[in-house]
Amino acid sequence: MDVVDTRVSGSEAQHLVRKCEQATKDKKKVLIGFRLGDLWTDVFTYEKGERASEQGVSVKARLLYISWIKVDGNMVYKAEPKSAESARRSQRARRHSCRAGSTGSRSCRASHSAPVRKT
């Protein structure tokens, strides 16, 4: 897989991507550390070239989070590490949303193998 077509989600990620636009227009090397989510595939038919009329598959995802950005090797952005409390809240929210939509499947429960501490 050479390319993943991404849609930037979240206002913070959108803001950071916009800040990089000028650097890419200036042909600078921009590297981004990121997290993708909600991967899906899209089947299409080639219309031109030697593969015309053949089917292809495009991999798509949402860009959820940017952890760092480098421009020409210089770090220009680094996300603040989450506090322990913020990480716990985030973990609880993920667990809740999964169980809320779950039918009690074994795979859902297995995906939450980390111990839960009650405070």
Automatic annotation (TrEMBL):
InterPro entries: DUF3577. Residues 89-98 have a biased composition (Basic residues). It comes from the Bacteria. This is Uncharacterized protein. Residues 80-119 are annotated as: Disordered.
